[in-house]
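During the no-cost extension, the postdoctoral fellow (Dr. R.K.) reprocessed legacy sequence entries with the updated structure-token encoder. One reprocessed record is reproduced below for audit purposes.
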Amino acid sequence: MTDNVIDVRNLTKIYNGRPVVDHVAITVPKGKIYGFLGPNGSGKTTTIRMLCGLLTPDEGEGTCLGLDLRRDALEIRRKVGYMTQRFSYWEDLSIRENLEFVATMYGLDRPKERVDKALSDLGLTGRADQLAGALSGGWKQRLALAASILHEPELLLLDEPTAGVDPQARRDFWDEIHRLAANGITVLVSTHYMDEAERCHAVIFMAYGKIFVQGTAAEVVKKTGLSMWIVHGPDLMGLMKRLEKDASNCSVAPFGDSLHVSCTDKAEIEKATRGMRQDYQWTEAEPSLEDVFIHYTRTAKDNFA
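Re-encoded structure tokens follow.
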């Protein structure tokens, strides 16, 4: 196997004549955590399901864990840990019973040893006999992650694993993800939380079936070429309406007692604000990953429009 755990090209999936995933190329090296960003309906889940062998691409080729995406789909499924968006374990079974059942389904050797280790690693030992249905969102996610790593996968595919989970539980979950990566496991994780994306080694931004940019968070912000200002002054909502009309290619969003204005064309924003600058305080600032997210979401063409 090469150093790239995921290496796919021209990955395409079409539903009802429309490309949900449109000639996507993804390369993820061993032991890295890659964040998969994009608005709802971008094709992230479909891409993940193709990578783990659950869906067959209509076009494209490549490898996952050194195995051919088409020919070796069953073997890929056995070697990948996949955590779905929704909790999909048995709520009338205890945490331990859930893990024991998963170990049985996989036909794993040393099932008790594996289950005990997963309980210990995820801090679940003290709750092992608690019914899954009685768990909070954060503890359910720990159980789901424990079940995903029972068979000691080399690759984890996590689909919005912390949606609806409180900040402390999200931080604990990500500490565990970094521990797994430090032990050589590769992770591709889709998320809408920008603070989580910044904890990844690199990010991939996908919108409406296409990949727009990828790299470290800093590289992605730089590649986008956004300029951003923080604006203070009177009647900011009135200013926001004027900018949305006169600088339609720019993004304007209220943040507390200020506006954040971002645009790839400085000349456009300067022209749109000519004559009103003296009424407001404009401070140029570094754009954030969230500004980049909003920019690509606004400018990408909706493949179902």
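The first strand starts at residue 4 and ends at 15. The chain has a mean pLDDT of 89. The remaining legacy entries will be reprocessed before the final report is submitted.
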